[in-house]
Task: inverse folding
């Protein structure tokens, strides 16, 4: 059954007197268990387009109207985000060019490691010679902290969601070799500027980025008869490497059933020979090396690329692949899976794919078709997605009205890892899966509950969670009132009757409701524990 | 898409029974394991140098390419030298703890084993080895999960357990495998306050039957089972002393699960640190330290389990081997075949299995690596069929054995 909303523009009217934003928590009576359709739509959009609603977000969106809010989210450059920028200021590696990172964070001297292994040097001495803060490890660590800060605090929420989506789509593994130095530049230069741009731009930017060239080995790929002329591999026959070519078609554009053959893989690999990295450990810049390039003719999924195209061969391949109908379909499927359901409705996929074809891969245009669709607003899609570990962690902090500094960001990144999603560390080129069955398992579920408990109990000292503010205005001596308030704020009253019943039963537990000494009934409800239970509840695992 | 697992979790009556009669099921689980077998898979992530692990000292081509990292051939009564196994192969000296197992024929070596796929990419090769489908990336589940699936039903949440933060590829699939970082921490950590755990438990007990609630119920069933058998307090037996580190910790806890009779059938443990591109070392050094932990952990596990090892087989694997010749950094680069170990159960140990391809230049794969003469699927399917009694066909789709069985089991 569908909850037909009609045109999204209708929302602002439904919101009534659209006054200024009211920065206060949801009044439990404002969003009743039987949500008016328009209010449900706002909650749904907040759950899908952001890392979860903060206290007050619902009212803010209702005030400006859902449609206007979505418009703004689709044009992030119009949204002031200076508070987030300030929070990121101390993370200096975020802004460094690759060459500077390579200089500032030298690779470990193999002789030092050998000395340790032979027992000729203590770990302490190693620390002094090669201190932690100078190790390349810091680059990915700062990027992780930044990702958390942005997800928790940024006003440009849809942009952050899409940066995560596209990074994952064009995944690189921050633990592989030189990618450690390239990964922050990769997100900054290749992903972020195009996250709400066009898809062909994303392919072009990732194809020539040293992070991708290294991760999928294209930097080593050369025409079959190429002999390395200099350097440590001098005299070696380098040869063709098909790794990038295969993933470009399988994972970035056409999809595994997109209609290409092994022959196409080899042809695409030939086209990209010579796309490599200039002095990977000093400059780390894209360069095209004609000497490595296979100059012959190529035929890629039926298109002839004449001999002598040089660097243009790869560009031509990208053009062919991004215009292919399989690419439109493959991307539409992934986007609909992210925003609508683990089982993407075929009719919506077809409409989004048509938009891709009609707009040359315009990302906001595709998103708009999804957000305005009946499938997005439908009852089947409502709270149907299980949050990924990172989405869960960020949404929990946001639900409690929290904020974080860089150190807190690192701690939250570790929490995400413990629940199964270490940031920037997906090893396979497929990235992380976007399906519930991958994320729901015993150890991970316990880790979610333990995170809820630690967060609500204030065990993340650099993450400020203001529980008193959260329940301000409710009578702390009335556990039922506190619970109602928490359910309204954290899960917008969408807790099922069973959950509500279980939580209400908890209120009689003397360890939850501490008795006062003067025998006048319960004095203080243990808000932290109740909040932990709500965040660890099945309802909060969904978005 | 409704997978079998989703369905079971959503509506399977086993779950209802869990909530109703854990004690009864506990007994059932004990009975199931009493005549059951356990398979433990150890993954050496990063590609172990099989030529250092099990050195072919009788091979003329060995020493030439390895001037600084090559092992000295074994010499009787000389300590710190490779340990001769059969006149041709020798263990790395740091694997000395495994020698008694070799001598009493509990431990076998399969050499020149690996994948028919030629990739030298860690992630591809690991993926292929874990799914059991070399060259095919679209396989959704792992071969160990498929092995569990072929066995008779066993109503315990502990059929398949991976020690680690996430479920490895090889246990993904609809068998409800559990991943845990540690037995001790596999609980709601609220100190002495039991109310929070009870609260969480009731939250997942009630309500709709979906993947989330189903997994939640399984989780708390597992938590309760672990608490009732007090698994984390079972001490190592027979004076077994596990080395500190990832593998020792994992095997120590897997032994606890086996001794606690929770119904374990398949367990998985990872060990990192084998990607020795730089400063690999020879008798001593970086790689030797890894072998010391690896051999020590396996030996402690066998000692700890004692007579229970009759029902347990441990198999070690790595995504590929390393180059025969050392590189310019006194290390080795990604190669092809490597060596794997099989320990325990009915294994006919004290032998090196597999055809040795030789190390002369023309015998090398692509002119640089040890060639694969035993497809890893030949080894894995033999272990799964002979030890676990699983039928081979569904475990390795598309695999048609081109060689006869290794004859690992009596």
Result:
């Amino acid at each position: 059954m569908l909850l037909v909303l009609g045109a999204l523009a209708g929302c602002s009217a439904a919101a009534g007197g659209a006054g200024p934003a009211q920065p206060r928590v949801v009044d439990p009576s404002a969003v009743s268990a039987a949500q008016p359709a328009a209010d449900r739509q706002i909650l749904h959009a907040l759950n899908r387009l952001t890392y979860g609603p903060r206290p007050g977000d619902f009212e803010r969106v209702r005030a400006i109207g859902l449609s206007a809010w979505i418009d703004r989210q689709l044009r992030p450059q119009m949204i002031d985000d200076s508070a987030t920028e300030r929070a990121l200021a101390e993370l200096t590696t975020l802004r460094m060019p690759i060459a500077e990172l390579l200089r500032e964070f030298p690779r470990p001297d193999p002789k030092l490691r050998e000395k340790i292994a032979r027992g000729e040097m203590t770990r302490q001495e190693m620390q002094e010679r090669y201190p932690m803060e100078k190790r390349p490890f810091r680059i990915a660590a700062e990027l992780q902290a930044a990702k958390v800060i942005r997800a928790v605090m940024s006003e440009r929420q849809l942009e952050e969601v899409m940066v995560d989506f596209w990074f994952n789509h064009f995944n690189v593994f921050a633990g592989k070799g030189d990618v450690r130095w390239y990964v922050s530049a990769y997100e900054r230069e290749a992903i972020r500027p195009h996250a709400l741009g066009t898809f062909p731009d994303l392919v072009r930017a990732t194809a020539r980025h040293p992070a991708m060239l290294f991760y999928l080995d294209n930097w080593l790929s050369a025409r079959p008869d190429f002999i390395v002329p200099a350097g440590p591999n001098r005299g070696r026959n380098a040869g063709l490497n098909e790794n990038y070519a295969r993933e470009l078609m399988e994972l970035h554009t056409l999809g595994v059933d997109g209609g290409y053959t092994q022959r196409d893989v080899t042809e695409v690999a030939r086209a990209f020979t010579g796309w490599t990295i200039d002095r990977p450990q000093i400059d780390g810049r894209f360069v095209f090396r004609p000497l490595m390039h296979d100059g012959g003719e190529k035929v890629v999924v039926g298109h002839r690329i004449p001999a002598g195209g040089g660097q243009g061969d790869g560009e031509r391949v990208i053009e062919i692949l991004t215009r292919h109908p399989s690419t439109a379909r493959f991307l539409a499927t992934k986007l609909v899976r992210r925003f609508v359901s683990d089982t993407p409705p075929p009719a919506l996929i077809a409409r989004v794919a048509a938009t891709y074809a009609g707009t040359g891969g315009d990302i906001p245009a595709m998103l708009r078709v999804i957000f305005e669709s009946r499938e997005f607003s439908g009852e089947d899609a409502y709270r149907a997605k299980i949050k990924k570990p990172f989405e869960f962690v960020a949404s929990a902090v946001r639900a409690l009205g929290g904020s974080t500094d860089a150190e807190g960001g690192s701690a939250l990144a570790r929490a995400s890892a413990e629940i199964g999603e270490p940031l920037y560390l997906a090893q396979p080129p497929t990235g992380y899966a976007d399906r519930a069955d991958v994320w729901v398992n015993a150890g991970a579920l316990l880790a979610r509950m333990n995170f809820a408990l630690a967060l609500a109990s204030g065990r993340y000292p650099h993450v400020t969670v203001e529980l008193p503010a959260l329940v301000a205005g409710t009578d702390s001596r009335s556990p039922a009132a506190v619970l109602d308030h928490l359910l309204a704020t954290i899960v917008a009253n969408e807790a099922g009757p069973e959950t509500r019943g279980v939580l209400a039963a908890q209120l009689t537990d003397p360890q939850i409701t501490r008795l006062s000494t003067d025998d006048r009934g319960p004095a203080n409800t243990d808000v932290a524990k109740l909040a932990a239970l709500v965040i660890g509840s099945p309802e909060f695992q969904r978005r | 898409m409704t997978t079998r697992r989703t369905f079971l979790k959503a509506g399977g009556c086993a779950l209802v029974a869990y909530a109703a009669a854990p004690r009864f099921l506990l007994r059932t689980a004990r009975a199931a394991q009493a005549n059951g077998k356990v398979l433990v898979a150890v993954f050496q992530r990063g590609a172990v140098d099989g030529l250092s692990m099990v050195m072919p000292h009788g091979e003329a081509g060995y020493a030439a390419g390895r001037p600084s990292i090559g092992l000295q051939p074994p010499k009787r009564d000389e300590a710190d030298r490779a340990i001769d196994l059969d006149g041709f192969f020798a263990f790395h000296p740091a694997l000395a703890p495994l020698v008694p197992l070799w001598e009493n024929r509990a431990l076998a070596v399969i050499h020149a084993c690996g994948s028919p796929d030629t990739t030298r990419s860690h992630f591809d090769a690991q993926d292929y080895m874990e799914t059991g489908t070399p060259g095919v990336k679209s396989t959704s589940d792992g071969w160990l999960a498929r092995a569990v699936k072929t066995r008779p039903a066993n109503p315990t949440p502990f059929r398949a357990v991976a020690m680690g933060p996430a479920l490895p590829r090889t246990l993904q699939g609809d068998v409800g495998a559990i991943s845990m970082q540690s037995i001790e921490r596999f609980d709601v950590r609220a100190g002495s306050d039991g109310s929070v755990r009870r609260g969480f438990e009731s939250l997942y007990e009630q309500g709709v039957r979906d993947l989330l609630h189903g997994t939640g119920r399984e989780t708390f069933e597992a938590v309760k089972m672990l608490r009732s058998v007090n698994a984390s307090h079972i001490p190592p037996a027979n004076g077994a002393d596990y080395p500190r580190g990832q593998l020792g910790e994992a095997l120590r806890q897997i032994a606890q699960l086996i001794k606690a009779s929770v119904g374990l059938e398949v367990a998985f443990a990872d060990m990192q640190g084998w990607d020795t591109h730089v400063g690999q070392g020879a008798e001593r050094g970086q790689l030797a330290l890894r072998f010391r932990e690896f051999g020590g952990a396996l030996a402690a596990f066998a000692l700890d389990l004692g007579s229970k090892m009759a029902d347990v087989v441990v198999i070690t694997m790595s995504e590929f081997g390393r180059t025969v010749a050392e590189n310019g950094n006194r290390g080795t680069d990604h190669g092809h075949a490597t060596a794997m170990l099989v320990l325990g159960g009915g294994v006919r140990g004290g032998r090196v299995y597999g055809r040795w391809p030789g190390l002369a230049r023309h015998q090398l794969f692509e002119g640089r690596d040890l060639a694969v003469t035993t497809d890893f699927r030949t080894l894995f399917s033999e272990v799964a069929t002979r030890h676990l009694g699983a039928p081979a066909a569904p475990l390795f789709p598309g695999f048609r054995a081109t060689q006869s069985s290794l004859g690992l089991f009596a």
